[in-house]
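User: Okay, second chain of the day. Same drill as before: sequence in, structure tokens out.
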Amino acid sequence: MMRPFSASELLGIWEEGVGRMPAEQALVILAAAFPRVPHTRLGQLTVGQRDACLLHLRALTFGTHLTGRATCPACQEQLELAFEAGELLPADSLLPDPEANEPENSATSFEIDAYELTFRLPTAIDLAALRDISFAQEQLLAACLLAARHKGKDVQVADLPPAVLQALTGRMGQAEPLADLSLAATCPACGHNWQILFDIVSYFWSEINAWSLRLMREVHSLASAYGWREADILAMSAWRRQRYLELIGL
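Assistant: Same drill. Structure tokens below.
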């Protein structure tokens, strides 16, 4: 069962993940949340399952309220955003439990324009394996396309027509709506409506990074003032640390 991260756990996540690619940082966070689950199993979470878990962990650790900024694509107006974590997931969404079950990612088949295609959904490890972002879509499709046949002959993903590739990506999106965390937005200046994609990995990691840097400064200040060990300071509640910081004028 997922629970809030402790101060020491957040520092451990930050130390392990700093400097890594976002997809790798996502797996670092999940590994800390599910320490008894093999990394290979966590890596088999689909992107939607991964992001749903991360959103829930963020809500448990830092609260359900989120804020951000966005630029209207029509008039370039800057918007201040404030929303709740629950607005990003369908009300009937079920969170995966890697501790209890293997992640589900069954194969799906469909036909279009005489092409027979079978695919699976992208996983957390698929994203972590990407190194050249300019070819990310091609690499993901090659990994997730299990079979492609045209008039009885096998076809490689690179040889699929654009219309078939578009249908494939569309079917993949329909098969996992959790992979598309988005918010409906309306520009107060021009009235333009659009969907804002929300990147929970970057958002959560930026919070962990800022929180960890601030906590390190607090630990340094308290250790310097009182001679306390880091472990003792981290074991304090945030409220108690703040009271001691106020006593030394911080």
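The CA atoms of residues 184 and 195 lie 5 Å apart.

User: Thanks, on to the next one.
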